Amino acid sequence: MILISVNTGNREDIKLLLKEQMATLEKKEESNGIEADEGGWKNQGRALIIDGRSLVFAMEEGMRSSFLHIAIACRAVICCRVSPLQKAEIVEAVKRMVRSVTLAVGDGANDVGMIQAAHVGVGISGNEGLQAVNSSDYAIAQFSHLQKLILVHGAWSYTRVAKCILYCFYKNIVLYIIETSSKEKLLQFPALYKRSQNGEDFNSKIFWLHCLNGLFHSIVLFWAPLKAIDHDVAFLSGKTHDYLFLGNIVYTVRHPASLFSFAFIFSSNIENWFCVTFLKYVQTRRFSSCGIKAIVSINIALTPC
């Protein structure tokens, strides 16, 4: 591995070194025809080492862009003996330049700024206290647990959040489509407001019906599959089912139950759709306003509570 060491502590020497490395990098990019972060130096195994004293000059306005460009093109970057403020500054600079998700790992109070500056902060609970853990998004006991945190729990978390977001949009779209009446219809037929005055959408009967509906879904989704596999069943591998097997069954049964709930909500709004459509038809036939109000009153009076 080719090592680039920056530990002079002199502004002019650092500026000259960065200029030379930038010239080498640009020449390499031109010869390969690719960007440095997609090949180039990374394929050669270059690494950058810089100390805190030299980092002060490298992060100045005139040299920051060159330093970050070189650092990103390297396979590894080691910053030694840096202050907590410098750690956070490096993370912020990488976030602005690379525009990708950053992760910072720390185990002490001097890592708090870096952890809070990154998109994802991971704290390690150890001998240096709990300051890093209290300021982090995720906490682990050992650094070796980081691989499982990212590759396993990170993938699971992404899947769950994605499904939750998609379901929220799906739910809102469904509920928007089955809205009782639009703004124009409510202004056009004020008699429809009697549905709110009479409490037809929320009363004791509807409340207990929804409670019974939820109880029915809990029986179908959980208790029925649980009782179905109450006795151990051995698979071909010799293993028995566990909570993950039950969870897969519950997740599979959930979809028909969701369709049933949608049908339950949809059926309760068919009458309102018919009422608005019929009133629109009556209006086009030029019935009198008194006749329209009478029809609306009769329809609302016949609507079950």
TrEMBL record:
Superkingdom of this protein's organism: Eukaryota
Compartments in which it is found: Membrane
Membrane-related topology note: Multi-pass membrane protein
Classification via InterPro entries: ATPase_P-typ_TM_dom_sf, HAD-like_sf, HAD_sf, P_typ_ATPase, P_typ_ATPase_c
Domain named P-type ATPase C-terminal: residues: 133-179, 182-275
Gene3D superfamilies from the UniProt entry: HAD superfamily/HAD-like
Record carries keyword Metal-binding: yes
GO biological process per UniProt: phospholipid translocation
Gene Ontology MF, one: ATP hydrolysis activity
GO CC field: plasma membrane; trans-Golgi network
Keyword annotations of the record: Magnesium, Membrane, Metal-binding, Transmembrane, Transmembrane helix
Record-linked SUPFAM superfamilies: Calcium ATPase, transmembrane domain M, HAD-like
UniProt cross-references to PANTHER family, sorted A to Z: PHOSPHOLIPID-TRANSPORTING ATPASE, PROBABLE PHOSPHOLIPID-TRANSPORTING ATPASE
Protein name (record): P-type ATPase C-terminal domain-containing protein
Origin organism lineage: Eukaryota, Metazoa, Chordata, Craniata, Vertebrata
